[in-house]
């Protein structure tokens, strides 16, 4: 037997109103009272049993899992929205225990002790059940050969559901709530109904054990055959919800901008005002009907009508429509929305530029651009739907249930609660089911756009091989595949809409019939029927859109998945020291490479293609970091230097030059964006391209086209050289800078490069050995190693790889020269005036 001291320790404030443990001093030993179970006995037995199971057996269960269990690897934990639903139901039952006790303490003049006992014990029991549910989710007994929830949780849920069914035994007892004769019984009935539905759902869902592995954990570890592709297609959209929300939170609150912060608060205030207006509109409509039917005076009716019209003006045509308050809120939110969009795009753009060269070499530009477009636009949609649609709709539902229970009776609250529960539950289940179709549609959309972009970027290759029809067929096949996934998504959407309409129609029919019956029985007025119809239709309007909002939120999460993956890409070359293998395609490129370049010297790297020459240049520019050893400039390890600082002192002329689709002037100015037009032209003259530019109709304002394709290869290379000349760096890297030029132009530019490289440290990657004869040191790279080193004359005397390369190039040059001479002779013989040839033929 529990003493009063135990009760007061549970709820000190309520203990002041406790006069006895049972009502009207009825002893707890009376189990049957007036045709039903004694409430005192029932509400003492049930929480005591539940708490005993939860704390005694549950504690043993918890200790075993903590001591003998092991934490499951995240990849073996299934993702399930039903598991989250289990947690929500458990927390709801915990809150119902607290709320019911607080409500009775506030509404009753005398609070029996068993009410406090029930509230305290039930709260503790459900709290401990939540703990056990989370433990089973994360830990497992390795030797356990079974799957599903433990016996402790299943027994707990079964007893909780069974205890709620015991209430039916007391159907005819006046001490229970079945009569619904007063407000207190109606509220108690509503609380019992929510407990009944929640415990029943917990028990039946628990039999399926969502969120737990389908096989014993040891078997999963041994097999380890999880299909990553299938899991990614079927996983819930809400997976990683916390992580996604953490990424979104910084964009929701405009830090550092007081004006935008005030706008956010003002919009939230308008949102609350809309909720209040939605309640008063049907009430005033009811008052108009009642006043007209009861013969009220004209001034009274007129004032009521005016107030109703003003509220309707503020609300709009219906909840969620464009009323005055909604329009003001939408207008005020524009700046906040633009801020969010701008911050997301800028941050993602900066992040992409910070990624390593390795990632950019393997990316698909079409897919990246499509992911950015959909991801940034979906963030605004997500915030708008959650803040201004989902939360207000849920608030309207809760307000309506409370309103109908207090102003009508519990049956109306029950109808709305059941209808809303079925609607929301089926909406979530069907929407989660059709997620795979939406995700597949996105993947096919990305694939189609990627094929289109890739084909258009490489249009020269398409035309070289007359593959236009082939590319069109490939694109058409991609569109057809996308449309197949789109049909599945649209068909499943139609099924969802029909299910929602059926639930809404049944709820409206049931409530209208019940309200009409009460009006015929003179228990309600005609205005009450009008109030119910107006309120319920007003409520169903946002509820009908709730499925759309939920789908849009889910679609936004799906659209953002690829964008989040871009955010998750790590910077391989960070601002601090990073250790990274110099590997491409899982192949080690450089091994035991070591050399020193003194200030002002020129070092040339030569060797066959794929030997690692360009990789060395990229290491110097810190596109990659080395695994062993280090790269130093003036004795300073470049892996410990900021990339911006390092690259500001280095100029690069790459082997393949890609220009921006802009003017020639702006492409050259890219070397130093603060340079004047005169400095740009001087750099172009030094690169031997100024005179050529002046022959163009638009001069330096000539557009170079996509990737600079309007210019020849030699012209693009000279623009790149002019960029580097304009930058005036201390270290110059020339990666076969003159490979695309003819011999005469190469000689002209070589003289300019010699001037630019004077008193500057220079590293040259060269294919034509004639261009690096004067280098201070030549490194012959072969198979990722430095095979030979020395000056030109020294390497020729060695008779090694360099000498062999030099001999082959000289022979090829002589052969080309003789071929050119023979070609010119043949052309001179053939190129005779047509008239002379024709005359000779006639003669």
Automatic annotation (TrEMBL):
GO cellular component, one term: melanosome membrane
Span list, region Disordered: 809-843
Name used for this protein in its record: ATP-binding cassette sub-family B member 6
Cited PANTHER family: ATP-BINDING CASSETTE SUB-FAMILY B, ATP-BINDING CASSETTE SUB-FAMILY B MEMBER 6
Annotated transmembrane regions: 41-64, 85-105, 111-133, 154-177, 189-209, 262-285, 382-405, 411-431, 502-519, 525-546
EC assignment: 7.6.2.5
Family classification: Belongs to the ABC transporter superfamily. ABCB family. Heavy Metal importer (TC 3.A.1.210) subfamily.
Upper lineage: Eukaryota, Metazoa, Chordata, Craniata, Vertebrata
Quaternary context: Homodimer.
Topology in the lipid bilayer: Multi-pass membrane protein
């Amino acid at each position: 037997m529990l003493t009063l001291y135990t009760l007061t320790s549970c709820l000190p404030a309520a203990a002041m109103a406790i006069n006895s443990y049972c009502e009207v001093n009825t002893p707890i030993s009376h189990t049957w009272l007036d045709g039903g179970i004694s409430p005192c006995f029932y509400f003492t037995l049930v929480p005591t049993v539940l708490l005993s199971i939860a704390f005694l057996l549950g504690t043993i269960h918890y200790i075993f899992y903590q001591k003998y269990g092991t934490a499951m690897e995240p990849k073996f934990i299934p993702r399930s929205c039903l598991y989250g639903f289990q947690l929500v139901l458990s927390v709801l039952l915990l809150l119902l225990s607290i709320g019911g006790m607080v409500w009775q303490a506030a509404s009753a003049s005398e609070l029996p002790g068993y009410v406090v006992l029930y509230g305290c014990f039930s709260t503790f029991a459900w709290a401990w059940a939540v703990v056990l549910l989370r433990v089973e989710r994360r830990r497992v007994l390795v030797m356990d050969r079974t799957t599903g929830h433990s016996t402790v949780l299943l027994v707990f849920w079964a007893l909780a559901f069974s205890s709620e069914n015991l209430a039916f035994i007391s159907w005819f007892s006046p001490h229970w709530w079945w009569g619904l004769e007063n407000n207190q019984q109606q509220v108690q009935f509503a609380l019992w109904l929510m407990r009944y539905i929640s415990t029943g759902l917990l028990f039946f869902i628990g039999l399926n054990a969502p969120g737990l592995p389908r096989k014993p954990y040891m078997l999963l570890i041994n097999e380890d055959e999880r299909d990553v592709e299938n899991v990614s297609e079927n996983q819930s959209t809400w997976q990683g919800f916390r992580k996604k929300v953490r990424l979104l939170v910084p964009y929701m609150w405009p830090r550092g901008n007081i004006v935008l912060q005030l706008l956010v608060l003002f919009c939230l205030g308008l949102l609350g005002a809309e909720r209040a207006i939605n309640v008063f509109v049907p009430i005033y409509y009811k008052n108009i009907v009642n006043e007209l039917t009861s013969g009220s005076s004209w001034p009274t009716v007129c004032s009521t009508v005016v107030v109703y019209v003003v509220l309707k003006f503020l609300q709009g045509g219906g909840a969620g429509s464009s009323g005055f308050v909604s329009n003001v809120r939408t207008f005020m939110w524009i700046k906040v929305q633009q801020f969010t969009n701008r911050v997301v795009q800028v941050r993602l753009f900066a992040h992409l530029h910070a990624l390593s060269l390795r990632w950019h070499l393997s990316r698909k530009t079409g897919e990246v651009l499509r992911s950015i477009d959909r991801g940034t636009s979906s963030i605004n949609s997500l915030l708008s739907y959650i803040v201004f649609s989902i939360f207000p709709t849920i608030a309207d539902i809760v307000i309506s249930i409370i309103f109908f229970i207090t102003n009508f009776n519990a049956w109306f609250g029950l109808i709305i609660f059941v209808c809303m529960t079925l609607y929301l539950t089926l909406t979530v289940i069907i929407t989660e089911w059709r997620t795979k179709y939406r995700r597949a549609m996105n993947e096919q959309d990305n694939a189609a756009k990627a094929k289109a972009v890739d084909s258009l970027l490489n249009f020269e290759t398409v035309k070289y091989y007359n593959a236009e029809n082939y590319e069109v067929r490939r694109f058409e096949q991609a569109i057809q595949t996308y449309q197949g996934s789109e049909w599945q998504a649209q068909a499943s959407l139609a099924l969802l809409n029909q299910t929602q309409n059926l639930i809404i129609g049944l709820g409206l029919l049931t409530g209208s019939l019940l309200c009409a019956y009460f009006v015929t029985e003179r228990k309600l007025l005609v205005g009450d029927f009008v109030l119910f119809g107006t309120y319920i239709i007003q409520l169903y309007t946002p509820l009908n859109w709730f499925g759309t909002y939920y789908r849009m939120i889910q679609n936004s999460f799906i659209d953002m998945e690829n964008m989040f993956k871009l955010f998750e890409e790590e910077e391989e070359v960070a601002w601090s020291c990073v250790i990274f293998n110099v590997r491409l395609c899982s192949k080690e490129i450089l091994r035991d490479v070591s050399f020193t370049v003194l200030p002002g010297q020129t070092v040339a790297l030569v060797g066959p293609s794929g030997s690692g020459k360009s990789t060395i240049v990229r290491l110097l520019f810190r596109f990659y970091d080395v695994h062993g050893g280090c790269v130093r400039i003036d004795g300073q390890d470049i892996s410990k230097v900021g990339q911006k600082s390092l690259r500001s002192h280095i100029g690069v002329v790459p082997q393949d030059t890609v220009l921006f689709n802009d003017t020639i002037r702006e492409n050259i100015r890219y070397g130093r964006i603060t340079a004047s037009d005169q400095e740009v032209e001087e750099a172009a003259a030094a690169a031997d391209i100024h005179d050529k530019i002046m022959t163009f109709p638009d001069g330096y304002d000539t557009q170079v086209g996509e990737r600079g394709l309007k210019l020849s290869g030699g012209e693009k290379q000279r623009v790149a050289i002019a960029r580097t000349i304009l930058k005036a760096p201390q270290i110059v890297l020339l990666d076969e800078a003159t490979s695309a030029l003819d011999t005469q132009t190469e000689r002209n530019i070589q003289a300019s490069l010699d001037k630019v490289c004077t008193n500057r440290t220079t590293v040259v990657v060269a294919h034509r050995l004639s261009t690096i004869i004067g280098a201070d040191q030549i490194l012959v790279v072969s198979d990722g190693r430095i095979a030979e080193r020395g000056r030109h004359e020294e390497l020729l005397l060695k008779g090694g790889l360099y000498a062999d390369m030099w001999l082959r190039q000289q022979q090829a040059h002589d052969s080309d020269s003789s071929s050119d001479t023979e070609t010119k002779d043949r052309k001179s013989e053939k190129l005779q005036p047509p008239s002379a040839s024709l005359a000779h033929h006639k003669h």
